Amino acid sequence: MPLSPDEASRFADLLKGHAEKLATRWTDSVATSLRGRLSSAELQRQTGDLQKAFQQALAGGAVDVTDDAAAELRAQLAEISNSRARQGFNATETAVSVYALKDAMLEILGEQSDVATLRDYVAFSTFVDRAALFTFDNYVRVREALIADQAEQLLELSTPVVKLWEGVVAVPLVGTLDSARAQVVMERLLQTLVDTGSPYAIIDITGVPAVDTQVAQHILKTVVAARLMGADCIISGIRPQIAQTIVALGIEFGDIATKASLADALRYVLGKTSYRVVAAKRPER
Amino acid sequence: MNDESQRIPVSTDQDVVRVRQLVRTVAVAVKLSLVDQTKLVTAASELARNTLVYGMGGMVEVSRVHNDRRGGIRIVFADQGPGIVDLDLALTDGYTTGGGLGLGLSGARRLVDEFEIETEPGKGTTVTVVKWCR
């Protein structure tokens, strides 16, 4: 049952007339659901702003959240859902911030109990529901944007290229190596090879949980690309279970050097260069 | 006899990762050895990707099975895609129509204990694999 313009203005008056009582009741019930994770001053400001926005929207003749008169209300709701989503509140806690208005309003109306009032309240309740749904939609959008941002950040984070020694760079791969990450890894590695003029690169797959044909193909392509640039690639971190799986799958690493650990790979590379790793001699007595 | 079967629809790359995670969880639960876990997870990864890439998406069902002597995992990969025209060719090492290494299907067969494939051109493909505990 939608709100009629008549009812809208009646509720606008109610919101104005009982502003203080409503605000207290509303803030209290939101505070309970958020369990003190937001300061009461902040909460009071938010509900105060929201209440004002509701009142203005209704006074302006809005009968739905999508109406022009409710533009300010929508902006307030969007702000609430933005801040809730960014502060890590869940969907229920966000929606309750709006729904709580219904309880507060019911308490104000509780003094009268005729059918007309009930009818009004149901219509008002529908309006608040729409507002809550709008908040919810917005909340989901913000969360999705957050997740997309984080995924992008993770992509950046998880693919460092580190210098191990003069002329030796290493890529410690951690996690799932999908096409997007493989592309980032390859670009980073090739760029670092150019920047540092390193003739050796070690790709360490200790942190890759499963090496299937797609992962292997990505690694092989990276190795071939590095070779085209004149760098030698060594693959390290091949654990026993991965080795057995690779053999069963039938993946051939050809003449690419592979080592069980990063330490082995570094020793191997140093052995091919002019460096020698030897134990320090004890000083003679 | 089987229990606790779980289904995951496969329509994106993320779903392949989810299949892998589910298979690993169940593999740990039925106490597969680390090598067998890795083999099964890798096989699941290959077959789920086949379902996604060649089968245009489908459904993966993971269930625990047991016979008189031991327990294991059965995974069913089902799609309603174009099916496989020449199964022998598809199971040949190095044969691919999609630009991969051509080892996914044939390699997955070597990674599991039981491997069954039902396919009909135009109707789709269902691959069933079982890995038993040793």
Overall mean pLDDT of chain B: 91
Q: Mind telling me the CATH class of the largest domain in chain A?
A: Mainly Alpha
Number of strands of chain A: 5
Distance between the termini of chain B: 19 Å
Task: Fill in the CATH topology of the largest domain in chain A.
Answer: Globin-like
CATH class of chain B: Alpha Beta
How far the N terminus sits from the C terminus of chain A, by CA atoms, comes to: 99 Å
- Biggest sheet, spatial arrangement of strands of chain A: 1-2-3-4-5
CATH fold topology of chain B:
Heat Shock Protein 90
As a percent range, the share of helical residues of chain B equals 25-40%
* Low-confidence segments of chain A: none
Report the sheet-strand fraction of chain B: 25-35%
Rg of chain B is 14 Å
Within CATH, the superfamily of chain B carries the name Histidine kinase-like ATPase, C-terminal domain
| Element string of chain A (H = helix, E = strand) | HHHHHHEEHEHEHEH
Architecture (CATH level 2) name of the largest domain in chain A: Orthogonal Bundle
Which structural class best describes the helix and strand composition of chain A? alpha/beta
Total domains of chain A: 2
Which percent range describes the beta-strand content of chain A? 5-15%
Described by strand count, sense and barrel closure, the largest sheet of chain B is: 5 strands, antiparallel
Walk me through this protein's architecture:
The complex is a heterodimer of chains A (285) and B (134). Chain A is an alpha/beta fold and 285 residues long. Chain A contains 10 helices and 5 strands, in the order ααααααββαβαβαβα. Chain A has helices at residues 5-17, 19-34, 40-59, 71-86, 91-109, 115-157, 179-196, 213-228, 240-249, 262-272, and strands at 162-165, 168-174, 200-207, 232-236, 257-258. Chain A has a 5-stranded mixed beta sheet, with helices on both faces. In chain A, β1 (162-165) and β2 form a beta hairpin. In chain A, α2 packs across α3. With 134 residues, chain B is of the alpha+beta class. Chain B contains 4 helices and 5 strands; from the N terminus they run βααββααββ. Chain B has a 5-stranded antiparallel beta sheet with strand order 1-2-3-5-4, with helices on one face. In chain B, α1 (13-29) packs antiparallel against α2 (34-53). The interface between A and B is medium-sized, with 20 and 24 residues. Chain B: Pfam families: HATPase_c (PF02518). Chain B: Residues 35-134 form the Histidine kinase/HSP90-like ATPase domain.
